[in-house]
Request: fold
Amino acid sequence: MSDRTVTSTAGGLPPWHAAHGFDADPLGVLDEGHHRHGPVFRMPVDGVETVLVGTWEGLGELFAAERGHLEVLNTPLVHDLFGHALFNLTGDGHGEARRRLRTTLSGRALPGYVSALLEVTAPVAAWWAQHGARDLHREMRELTGAMSARVLLGVAPEEADAAVFASDFERFVGATGAPPGPARFATARYWAGRAARRRLHDLFARRAAEAIRVASADSALAGLVAAFDDAPAAAGPLADHLLALLIAARETTASLATWCLVGLAGYRELARLAAAEARAVSAEPELLVRRGALPVLKSVLAETQRLHSPNLLSMRETVCPVTLGGHRIEAGTRVAYSPSAGHFDPKVFPQPHAFRPGRFLAGQAHRSRLWAFGGGAHACLGRPLAELMALTVMTSVLNRGLPQLPDGPPTRIRHRPAKAPIDPLSFALDQEPAS
Ligand code: HEM
Reply:
């Protein structure tokens, strides 16, 4: 028994797990915790006692119990900066906002965004083919920002608004790093972020008016404006939702796309197979959104979600007592789940720490066992778009060459805000002749 590890008693507190080494290897610590204690245990996270829920069974139980018992735990800073954004809403207002946002984020809306996304990714891939990238993840963050601005706001990279958006968005993101409580009011970054938020809201209003005028379907904006036209106040204003979508899309999608390329760089034969699919996309871009198409690229996407889930933890707070894993959890308790807590179960994913996309091709593993996009009441609304963005990046890159990491794969990794290399990751494209 390490430190304060206690044996679980039926109905009593979940067992305690010492969080030694959590900062260096959080997934290892969570994995060990679930191995020793099962789906539910207690552990300090950022110095606060937290009930951790994981494993396939544990997450299923958590999501089933979520409505009415648990709410997303957001700091006063997040409430303040994001206002009535989706992840700050509860109850009917939350459901109403999700329903309205989904109209432009579901799979059905995606075909309209394909060529706009390719127009953003193709020139960047061409640049990488010529010059390489000195820091792949940093450049991927910029690319993800540009893709999101294009699809969510209709802002193309060559427009003056693109630079205005990028700089104000960075200022706003900077404010999310201010102290979470009242100490934020004493920081310059908080006030700079608030001012940037006002300017971004003005930009959204201007772009919304333009989107309605041209009624273009290659961005979500006109559809979103229509969807929120008659929305009740409880569903929150569209401007708050737009900022939340842009934030939710940024680090996560940059992380996923980065690790997809890292995976491809390590397996040349796999990259060749994927490149053949990318060539087919050049001739027929709709393949990017066709069900059943591009099996190799989609297996890379699935295996990357499994092995490199972007999000480490999602936080909740119980608003009334709830039973999880046979333990009564009192109201006001901090609860967290890790989207990837079931991704390393050797019974479901043999050799769980190896990058083996083929497991999804051969039907040995199923995407339905992946929780990278969360689940339950707050499951990711942007999953179809995020997957389309990652596929688009991969195809544009593979059409220019086979990914390479001249200085080797990342060795030091951070897990928050999303999983990413700590050090600059150099990246190049090997332009071997097409077979
Ligand atoms: C690889 C990329 C992405 C990953 C891994 C990801 C993952 C997640 C996860 C795990 C959650 C649940 C959080 C929780 O349980 O508290 C979530 C929620 C959310 N995501 Fe994503 N996400 C991605 C991309 C996107 C994109 C592109 C968008 C929008 C365009 C988006 C919009 C949202 C929103 C609005 C929520 C909050 C839903 C709610 O509170 O009801 N995400 N995402």
Notes: The pocket of protoporphyrin IX containing FE is lined by residues 72, 86-87, 98, 105, 244-245, 248-249, 252-253, 256, 310-311, 314, 339, 372-374, 378, 380-382, 385-386 (CB under 6 Å).
